[in-house]
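Structure (tokenized):
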């Protein structure tokens, strides 16, 4: 049961979020990494931190850039957060790895940055990296808006059940055109909570009335989002 975003290692396969200052030379086989500067930690020194992220971003066990993003409730002034986030976007494109994004009340800005990226990628004839919004709690309309713009969602222990059901049923519907068949309907995570991701899978399986093993297969980013890296390691 893949844990898409966590700060702690347990026995489940996971994407462990680490600060570059704490990076170890190696990690257990079932642990892969995301590295980034959390928007709450963006300060005057952000460029130095981002430089260290750029240096480590090509590591084979780094599968994603983040978490990074925008937060209008906490952290540095939004303009500084936007600059730091843009620098992360550039790194993700450079190393061709997806992004794990923290976004609180800044979805208009996020969509604007996505449009910017899509425009520049289009000029260069390439496809932008997927962005995964972690800890998504928004309503179904917002989920759909983000997903039609090339973003994916990861749910933690708190989420809008209606959104979860809608995203799941639309993923399974052959009529849905805005989701690539190569992606999962969504991913699941524990974030900063000390609990097993199994509990999240069980809760979500209950809300969707599906078998937990089937859910575990569907929400495994190693079979889609990280397929390239999985083969690589
Ligand atoms: Zn976050």
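Design, position by position:
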């Amino acid at each position: 049961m893949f844990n898409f975003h966590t700060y702690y290692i347990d026995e489940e396969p996971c994407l462990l979020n680490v600060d570059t200052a704490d990076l170890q030379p190696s990690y257990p086989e079932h642990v892969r990494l995301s590295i980034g500067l959390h928007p709450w930690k963006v300060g005057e020194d952000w460029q130095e931190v981002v430089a260290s992220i750029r240096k480590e971003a090509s590591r084979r066990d780094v599968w994603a850039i983040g978490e990074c993003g925008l937060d209008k409730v906490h952290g540095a002034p939004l303009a500084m957060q936007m600059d730091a986030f843009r620098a992360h976007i550039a790194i993700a494109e450079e190393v061709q790895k997806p992004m794990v994004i923290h976004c609180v009340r800044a979805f208009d800005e996020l969509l604007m940055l996505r449009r910017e990226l899509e425009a520049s990628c289009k000029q260069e004839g390439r496809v932008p990296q997927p962005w995964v919004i972690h800890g998504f709690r928004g309503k179904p309309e917002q989920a759909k808006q983000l997903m039609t713009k090339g973003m994916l969602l990861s749910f933690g222990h708190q989420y809008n059940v209606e959104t979860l059901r809608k995203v799941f049923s639309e993923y399974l519907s052959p009529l849905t055109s805005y989701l690539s068949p190569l992606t999962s309907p969504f991913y699941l995570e524990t974030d900063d909570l000390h609990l097993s991701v199994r509990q999240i899978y069980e809760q979500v399986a209950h809300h969707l009335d599906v078998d937990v093993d089937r859910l575990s297969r569907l929400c495994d980013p190693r079979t889609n989002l990280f397929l390239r890296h999985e083969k690589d390691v």
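Reviewer-requested clarification: The CA atoms of residues 149 and 197 lie 28 Å apart. Residues 3-232 form a domain with the TIM Barrel fold (CATH 3.20.20.140).
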